[in-house]
Design goal:
By secondary structure, the protein is of the alpha+beta class. The protein folds into three domains: about 10-295, no CATH class; about 305-415, no CATH class; about 425-480, Orthogonal Bundle (Arc Repressor Mutant, subunit A). It has 15 helices and 16 strands. The protein has helices at about 60-75, 170-185, 225-245, 290-300, 305-315, 320-325, 330-340, 345-365, 375-385, 390-405, 410-415, 425-435, 440-445, 450-465, 470-480; strands at about 5, 10-20, 80, 85-90, 100, 110-115, 120-135, 135-145, 145-150, 155-165, 200-210, 220-225, 255-260, 265-270, 280, 290. The strands form four sheets. Strands 1, 2, 6, 7, 10, 11, 12, 13 and 14 form a nine-stranded mixed β-sheet that branches. Strands 5-4-15 form a three-stranded antiparallel β-sheet, with no helix packed on it. Helix 12 crosses helix 15. The chain is elongated, with a radius of gyration of 30 Å. It binds manganese (II) ion. Manganese (II) ion (MN) binds near residues 20, 132 and 160.
């Protein structure tokens, strides 16, 4: 269990995440304006988005479908009845003066996301997923004395996915977020790009003494935009709260900002409650009624989900939950793995991908899609070891050359003359030379000092430049010593 040692007690951290996922859809949730990223400011704004008088919202069926897909991916109940409410507040980037959201009747109810951490596999509860619209963007850094508004994002569909306060460590929160991202990416319902803002995370953090039941006041840290920042924000905010409790200070429920440069959270505003927003049903929109047939047809159309894929990797290939989790964290890695294993030992292929390949990719700052080593080349490398053509030790050198040149391992082995010596006559000659060079060691072995045999095998490998098949060397050495 993850706890933080304080002066007076060990403290436990309680974490819940609210994640806004921008829905992948060509047009906005209540208008026909485009959602394409990176367009010139205020060029993708319809009269509805700009809240001109008399303009009426029309619900985009694609956004509803994306919510249902995601709900199924979250193992959640799909609500056949849902409804829109107005959340009223004033802000310059919200022309209507309210956000259309779902408070009382969200489209998706309770579900869960399965995570695997160093403490094992468990389910993190999802409270709900609701459909709402995004606001525009205020730009404060273009002129010293002016602020600008870009309404392109105003009205883009969002899925807000609210977890239960089930997470107990930064590691769990990070893993939950990664799994969530894997799910929406696999389903094609959100691109999951946190750095472009299409997935934004609000982190609810509270602490309590280990063993305590019930929850203490929480702090919401707003708009944290990477997995790493989420984990850091939790650590920093938990430490701040513990320090306050331990010096007998109390604090109010509030909303704070995470500053990744100064590594601190800062107050933003006191935490508002639902009644502050004067929610009421939006009179311009009808409730959304879904049929069983509609939900079933979507369920049948879904691709294999990351969780199912992970289970399949564990069952079919004997991978650990952790390894299977890493390989299914995104579609590219899973696709790479699946094309690499064709006809090979999947466990060994997984080790090469998660070992040498990932280490090199990380070091070079490359994604798996940019890997200079092709998937079938990894498979071929594992094949060469399995066939006894090269040793595991030589394979490391071959891999380094594959990374550098992007060439096939068989080609590299042939060119560099790295092929393992499996020819009995050649190996016997090497053994004879080694034994002749070390008559003292041979005498000791013959006198019963069996342990020295390993040392001799080492000498044989060295003499051959690592090219001798070790199993064959052992076997022939025994034969020679018995003579
Ligand atoms: Mn929201």
């Amino acid at each position: 269990m993850y706890t933080i040692a304080g002066k007076t007690a060990d403290w436990e951290v309680v974490i819940g995440l609210e994640v806004h996922c921008q829905i992948l859809s060509a047009s906005k949730v209540f208008s026909g304006a485009s959602t394409a990223f990176g367009a010139e400011q205020n060029t993708q704004v319809s009269f509805v988005d700009a809240a001109f008088p008399g303009m009426l919202p029309v619900l985009n069926a694609k956004c509803v479908e994306q919510c249902v897909k995601t709900g199924i991916g979250l193992n959640a109940a799909i609500n056949k009845y849902s409804r829109f409410d107005r959340k009223n507040y004033f802000y310059a980037d919200l022309p209507a003066g309210y956000q259309i959201s779902q408070l009382y009747h969200p489209i998706v109810g309770e579900g869960h996301v399965e995570i695997t951490t160093s403490e094992g596999t468990r389910k993190i509860g999802v409270e709900r997923l609701h459909l709402e619209q995004d606001a525009g963007k205020s730009i404060h850094d273009m002129a010293p004395d002016k602020s600008f508004i870009d309404l392109n994002r105003c009205g883009v569909g969002l899925m807000e996915i609210v977890s239960k306060p089930d997470m107990r460590s930064p590691e769990e929160a990070g893993e939950y977020l990664r799994r969530l991202r894997a799910i929406v990416r696999a389903l094609g319902t959100c691109d999951g790009n946190m750095d472009e803002g299409s997935m934004r995370c609000d982190v609810n953090v509270s602490v309590r003494k280990a063993g305590e039941t019930g929850l203490r006041p929480r702090v919401e840290v707003k708009n944290v935009n990477s997995v790493r920042f989420v984990m850091q924000a939790i650590e920093i905010e938990a430490a701040r709260q513990i320090a306050l409790y331990e010096s007998d200070q109390c604090f109010a429920q509030e909303t704070r900002l995470f500053d990744a440069v100064h590594m601190e959270t800062r107050p933003m505003r006191s935490k508002e409650n639902a009644h502050d927003y004067r929610y009421f049903p939006d009179p311009d929109l009808l409730p959304v009624i879904l049929t069983d047939d509609y939900i079933e047809s979507i369920r049948k159309s879904l691709p294999e989900l990351p969780e199912a894929k992970k289970k399949r990797y564990m069952d079919a290939f004997g991978l650990s939950a952790y390894d299977a989790g890493v390989l299914t964290a995104d579609a590219e890695t899973a696709a790479y793995f699946e094309s690499a294993i064709a006809g090979r030992d999947a466990k060994k292929v997984a080790n090469w991908i998660m070992g040498d390949l990932f280490a090199n990719l990380n070091k070079a700052g490359k994604s798996i899609a940019q890997s200079p080593v092709a998937a079938d080349h990894i498979g071929a490398l594992v094949g060469l070891i399995a066939d006894g053509a090269i040793s595991g030790k030589i394979a490391k050198d071959v891999f380094a050359l594959m990374w550098e040149t992007g060439r096939a391992p068989a080609q590299i082995v042939a060119e560099k003359g790295l092929k393992q010596v499996s020819d009995t006559g050649a190996v016997e000659q090497i053994i004879a030379d080694v034994l002749a060079a070390h008559p003292d060691k041979v005498a000791e072995i013959k006198a019963g000092k069996d342990k020295l045999k390993g040392w001799l095998v080492g000498q044989i490998m060295k003499a051959s430049g690592g090219a001798v098949n070790p199993a064959l060397a052992n076997q022939l050495l025994d034969k020679k010593l018995a003579e």
